[in-house]
Amino acid sequence: MSSIQNLSSADPFAEDSGLGGDSSVQYIHIRIFQRSGRKALTTIENLPKNIDFKKILKYFKKTYCCNGSILNENELIGNVIQLQGDHRKEAAQFLIDEKIVPKNNVKIHGF
Predict the structure, then answer these.
(1) Which residues have CB under 8 Å from 84's CB, separation 6+?
(2) What is the pLDDT along the chain (111 residues), one digit of tens a residue?
(3) What φ, ψ does residue 18 adopt, rounded to 5°?
(4) Which residue in 64, 70, 80, 63 sits closest to 28, CA to CA?
(5) Among residues 107, 6, 94, 12, which one has the least CA distance to residue 58?
(6) Where are the annotated segments for Disordered (predicted)?
(7) Is 111 exposed, middle or buried (0-12, 13-18, 19+ CB in 10 A)?
(8) Could you say which DSSP state residue 15 is in?
């Protein structure tokens, strides 16, 4: 009988992937949460603290024709931008185009 190894499951939301990478990199997490039916919320976490959250939220609301808010979470996460609807790709593209974060520091989660 051959020996079978137990495969350990990895947490997909964990910061360190265990591949020997730099664990001090700040990733921007863009997530979607399903509300009810076709309704959804998009959250953007771990944005740099030196940016103007109100201006970015105002741009998102005007450009994507949605409502949104700024949530003040605990000290580890910081401020979180919350938008109504699924705007993961558009928000990520905006953050990369405006050079707020590098492309390899943006992680999109969901579906």
Answers:
(1) 39, 40, 41, 42, 66, 67, 68
(2) 556 665 666 666 665 544 444 556 789 999 999 988 889 999 999 998 899 999 999 999 999 999 999 998 776 678 899 999 999 999 999 999 999 999 999 999 987
(3) 80, 15
(4) 80
(5) 94
(6) 1-21
(7) exposed
(8) S
Amino acid at 47: L
Task: Sketch out the chain's domains with CATH numbers.
Answer: 28-109 (3.30.780.10)
As a residue count, the chain comes to 111
| Type of residue found at 74 | N
- The amino acid that residue 3 corresponds to is S
